[in-house]
Write a structure and sequence with these properties.
With 391 residues, the chain is of the alpha/beta class. Helices cover 41% and strands 16% of the residues. Bound molecules: pyridoxal-5'-phosphate.
Length: 391
Amino acid sequence: MVPIYLDHNATTPVDEAVLKSMLPIYREVFGNPSSTHSQGRAARVHLDEAREQVAELIGAHPSEIVFTSGGTESDNLAIAGIARALRIKGNHILTSRVEHPAVLNTCAELEKDGFVIDYVPVDGYGRIDIAALQEMISDQTILITLQHGNSEVGTLQPIEDIGTIARGKGVLFHTDAVQTVSKVEIHVPNLPVDLLSLSAHKMYGPKGVGALYIRRGTPPLIPLLAGGGQEKKRRGGTENVPGIVGLGKSAEIARSRLKEDRAHLLRLRGRLRQQIDSKISGIHYYGHPEYHLPNTLYLGFDGVEGQALMIRLDLEGIAVSTGTACSSGSVSPSEVLGAMNIAQSEMFQTIRISLGRGNEMAEMDRVAKVLDVVVKDIRLKTGYSDRLAPK
Ligand SMILES: Cc1ncc(COP(=O)(O)O)c(C=O)c1O
């Protein structure tokens, strides 16, 4: 049984060319990029090249890229760094309940320090209410942090509109684009975004490395890591040169393949959905039908618990994820679905399929076939099938 990996929003396999770019850095170019001798300068050359590759992917200037340990740190640095730098101007931050925990928990920490956090409501697709956002901005608001693409349901936010509103009110705008960079075209010169987070392992790069884009002219943020002044004093610590080189290579590849990848992902997803719909009844799809990540299918089957389905698929060699998180022995529903007002009964019946560059059409057919068998079997065992129209 050849395994089928359909959990690319969790992480992606490292591209061979990315791995190849990193190995000589571990073996030969081991100098500290802050050292002035030739080994140090050689490492610096690779660091600079990677900065250019990441900048090019989003149309930024290399000086606007700060390397971090990943999406989580980029979110923390953007939000806490700006909040602390602008504390004298105001203490109000706007975000939403569909953000990644890296954003939500950073905001929760700031709340303990006296910042006021408000959550812009979202609709049933998880898209934020623009009119509400506009009304919620006050003269104390210093930052709006709203994601570009949702990792669970795949909904894209209208970041152009959000940024335009933020600009109009003189408020900084950070977006977590960890799920969208490499899947959706992003060109920061045309986007009213001041700070943008990205992560290598979501785009076929290594884990534990990412970047924060900080638009030139943004007030200097307070670093999270005090240290030797690396990254123009924005992030202390000797740089993870091999990881950063891998990030740079993954950015270069993503840039050259963006359109091709997108078309491939849309074709795969269309085929999978068509196959599933032709075989199985009682299905719900979540997330915005139009403003959506090209690789994500978030769905639920009536009468079929998501965790049970995920385990049965795993036994068949198919890796997907569920909308529920298991912690301390109990299963809790996704906060994202809660914010979207999805009924409790449905929340436990969802799975996320997130496709990747390496998936093939034949795999979609096999997944639909296995789903058909497994869903019908679970429904039969729980006595649910009786209530459904046969398909
Ligand atoms: C939207 C979003 N933001 C942030 C992160 C965190 O990124 P990292 O795993 O690189 O810390 C993730 C990872 O799942 C994510 O999906």
